[in-house]
């Protein structure tokens, strides 16, 4: 059980959400002297730092950009006297990767994990009618005991350096929006909804969690804000005759309004948009509202010039416009849960999301692509640190599902990306993770994980945990690229026929396939890294996908070029984007657009 409410902050007659986004104060703390010197009260010498944003790409020195260790943020906010009878919370969309939060010098929260909300009760520490200081002590070191996995080394000049086991830059900071929330002492802390369709009608089952004993009501409003159903009690169900369903590319959103009452007097109110739809796996098909849907889209990253992994509404808008233009209907939040605004907008746009926990780098390697596919076995789940890692993993799964469970856009949970899966120990590690996830989702969505090339049909011990199987495959890039493309095709077919022979009768989705491609390079005939090769590679992949009826989706790697750690395999980042980092199309965008539009 979480000891805080993850509900997204809103304002209404019972609650206020006050944004703390803007310019904060910031200090690096390489000597870890902050606490001893009392920085939790106030930062001594500080610089300015935008929130939300990653700190790295604002700077002009490597020491700052690549900084690894402790760093601090501070802001001041006025708290009005009118809030004195309320409960106050500070809520960060995330702090990467771990943080301690202080209110007027008092520790109010400690949180591990960089991609899910950090919420702290501050009622007993704020001064009403005065300015208040909030300070965050954060840290971005990587280890094998926390998610995502990596190590931290020390350079000869004493600086720490993050060594990710994953292929994206270790962007850090307060990368999502921050809110000061005022709500009633007795309040709505969480809610669940799930749906059953009966011909034209829908049954909406609900559960409302509060921290008190007063009466609770549940009301549904349609898109014109007209009431369509009503009930009382913390648990119940309402019938919606002639329900408008939430459909792919055609979203209809109701508003669920939940209230706590003391007789006729309102105590608390929380409302949220919900979409009535069902998700289930039936044989080889993924079904939304009982209709099979083929997933078309991308693996993405939260990544952009200057702001790094910082949330930005403009980037979100552009990305959705590009995805819609392509005829896409789905993306995977590779390799971590994204800012909540992504899910809210996907709900509005009728997009499907495979929501992924930050379990990436579970293979000992300098960036997973160096070990993935080679057959090299690193015994990742055989060290004494595994129990701690599993604890962090379970916590992230719980926080992700509690945060995202009511979004109609979320159709599946991905519980890992490319771990080792061929050992007995990997199976022992993942079994409780899947069990926990299944117990947490009131909508019983399908569970999956993304498997890399070593997870072959005859060796993998973890695909059995999944309701559908996600494959990351690079035949024609990491394996038999360029002049060997014909052999890549043969090798790909051999593997696919082995999966076919297993007769699993469940869907498969390709969650990664792609080639690094420089937007500057053209070559006839093609060579690797040219735009022409990306197109040929995609055509070869489509030819394979279309031969197997259990392939029910293709999410190309990646939506856009993105920043990674430096190395001989990366040219200022990963260039597998269908769009450049500035969100302009490579020629492959037109290849995919043609295919996806013809598949409607
Ligand atoms: O390299 C990439 O572009 C992407 O590859 C994926 O990892 C693989 C690397 C090599 C092989 N292989 O050799 O078969 C298979 C998978 C990761 O999930 C992703 O984060 C990364 O960005």
Automatic annotation (TrEMBL):
The keyword Transcription does not apply. Keywords: Glycosidase, Hydrolase. Residues 188-277 form the Glycoside hydrolase family 2 immunoglobulin-like beta-sandwich domain. Residues 279-600 form the Glycoside hydrolase family 2 catalytic domain. GO terms for molecular function: beta-glucuronidase activity. The keyword Nucleotidyltransferase does not apply. It holds the Pfam family Glyco_hydro_2_N. Residues 18-184 form the Glycosyl hydrolases family 2 sugar binding domain. It is an enzyme of class 3 (hydrolase). Its EC number is 3.2.1.31. Signal peptide: none annotated. PANTHER family: BETA-GLUCURONIDASE. Belongs to the glycosyl hydrolase 2 family. This is Beta-glucuronidase. It comes from Lacrimispora xylanolytica.
């Amino acid at each position: 059980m979480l000891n805080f409410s993850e509900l997204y902050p809103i304002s209404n007659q019972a609650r206020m959400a006050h944004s703390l986004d803007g310019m904060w104060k910031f200090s690096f703390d390489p000597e870890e002297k902050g606490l001893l010197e009392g920085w939790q009260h106030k930062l001594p010498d500080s610089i300015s730092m935008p929130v939300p944003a990653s700190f790295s790409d604002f700077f002009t020195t490597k020491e700052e950009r690549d900084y690894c260790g402790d760093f601090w943020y501070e802001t001041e906010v006025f708290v009005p006297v009118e809030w004195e009878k309320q409960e106050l919370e500070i809520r960060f969309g995330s702090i990467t990767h771990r943080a301690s939060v202080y209110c007027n010098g008092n520790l109010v929260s400690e949180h591990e994990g960089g991609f899910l909300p950090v919420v702290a009760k501050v009622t007993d520490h704020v001064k009403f009618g005065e300015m208040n200081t909030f300070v965050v002590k954060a840290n971005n070191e990587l280890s094998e005991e926390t998610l995502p996995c990596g190590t931290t080394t020390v350079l000869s000049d004493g600086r720490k350096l993050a060594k990710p086991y994953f292929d994206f830059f270790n962007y850090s900071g307060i990368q999502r929006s921050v809110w000061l929330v005022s709500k009633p002492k007795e309040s709505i802390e969480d809610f669940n909804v799930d749906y059953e369709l009966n011909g034209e009608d829908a049954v909406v089952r609900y559960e409302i969690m509060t921290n008190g004993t007063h009466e609770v009501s549940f009301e549904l409003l349609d898109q014109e804000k007209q009431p369509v159903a009503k009930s009382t009690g913390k648990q119940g169900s309402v019938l919606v005759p002639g329900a408008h369903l939430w459909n792919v590319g055609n979203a209809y959103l109701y508003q669920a309004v939940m209230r706590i009452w003391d007789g006729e007097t309102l105590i608390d109110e929380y409302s949220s948009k919900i979409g009535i739809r069902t998700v289930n796996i039936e044989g080889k098909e993924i079904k939304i509202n009982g209709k099979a849907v083929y997933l078309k889209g991308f693996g993405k990253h939260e990544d952009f010039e200057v702001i790094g992994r910082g949330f930005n509404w403009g980037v979100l808008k552009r990305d959705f416009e590009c995805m819609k233009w392509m005829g896409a209907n789905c993306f995977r939040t590779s390799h971590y849960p994204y800012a909540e605004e992504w899910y809210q907008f996907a709900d509005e746009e009728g997009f499907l999301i495979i929501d992924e926990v930050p379990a990436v780098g579970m293979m000992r390697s300098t960036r997973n692509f160096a070990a993935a596919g080679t057959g090299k076995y690193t015994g990742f789940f055989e060290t004494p640190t595994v129990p701690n890692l599993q604890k962090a993993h379970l916590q992230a799964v719980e926080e992700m599902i509690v945060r995202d469970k009511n979004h109609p856009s979320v159709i599946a949970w991905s519980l890992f990306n490319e771990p080792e899966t061929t050992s007995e120990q990997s199976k022992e590690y993942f079994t409780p993770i899947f069990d926990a996830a299944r117990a947490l989702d009131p909508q019983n969505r399908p569970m999956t994980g993304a498997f890399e090339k070593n997870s072959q049909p005859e060796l993998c011990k973890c695909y059995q945990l999944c309701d559908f199987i996600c494959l990351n495959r690079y035949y024609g890039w990491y394996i038999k690229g360029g002049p060997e493309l014909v052999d890549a095709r043969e090798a790909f077919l051999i593997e696919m026929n082995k999966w076919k022979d297993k007769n699993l009768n469940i869907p498969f989705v390709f969650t990664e396939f792609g080639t690094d491609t420089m937007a500057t390079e053209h070559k006839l005939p093609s060579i690797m890294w040219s735009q022409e090769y990306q197109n040929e590679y995609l055509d070869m992949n489509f030819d394979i996908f279309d031969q197997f009826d259990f392939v029910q989706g293709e999410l190309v790697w990646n939506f856009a070029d993105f920043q990674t750690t430096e190395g001989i395999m990366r040219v200022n980042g990963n260039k597998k984007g269908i769009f450049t980092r500035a969100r302009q199309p490579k020629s492959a965008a037109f290849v995919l657009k043609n295919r996806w539009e013809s598949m409607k």
